[in-house]
Design brief:
Layout (H helix, E strand, L loop, with lengths): L1 H34 L10 H10 L10 H4 L18 H13 L5 H8 L3 H12 L14 H10 L10 H4 L18 H13 L6 H7 L4 H12 L3
Helix pairs in contact: 2-6, 4-5, 4-6, 7-11, 9-10, 9-11
Amino acid sequence: MRQTAQISKLTRIRTGVLAVSAASILGFMATSFAAEPAAKAAKPDAAIGETLYNNGDPARGVIGCASCHGAEGKSASGAWPKLAGQHSAYLIKQLKNYKDGTRANAVMAGMSAALTDKDMADIAAYLSKQSVSPGVAQNKDTIGLGKVIYAGGIAEKGIPACAACHSPNGAGIPAQYPLLSGQWADYSVAQLGYFRDGTRKNSAQMTTIASKLSDVEMKAVSDYMAGLR
């Protein structure tokens, strides 16, 4: 009887040790898996972006951009913005805003619908590497007013200088404020109008500024920005 009791006791001890060991192993494995860093997002590929920009990906319903925005992002008219040299972070944000509806545009909503985040990053990487397309100011009668607004703002209306965010030469600040130099004046005027009337809702700062600008002031500063280098 004593021998049987001893065997039973040893069995219980061994079972307990095995249970503790198994728990320790499982705990270690869980800790190891938890400690593994999350998979890094794939690096943007400008070569893939170039293909998507020019040809799209018909199999996935992705439409190319070049037919409107021109070769290398150098559009032919103010109906479509110049995209060459634009900061990649800004381009990605705009595509996401078209997709989520905070920037309203029926055409671009359809264009962006099939794009994945990786597609957006690849296209933006390609465009950001292209040389900026220069432009010229057209209206000599308002260029002075445009320069005043861009460089110094309009203090009495609470309008800050555009240069404070977009830089004196219109180059902008990567990941924060877009490149404006050389942009078609017609396009810039239209966007200021959309900010003012609430059609475009993806920048509270620009909505506030545009709400204080008159039509004449919008046209003057847009024309001046077109000639910035």
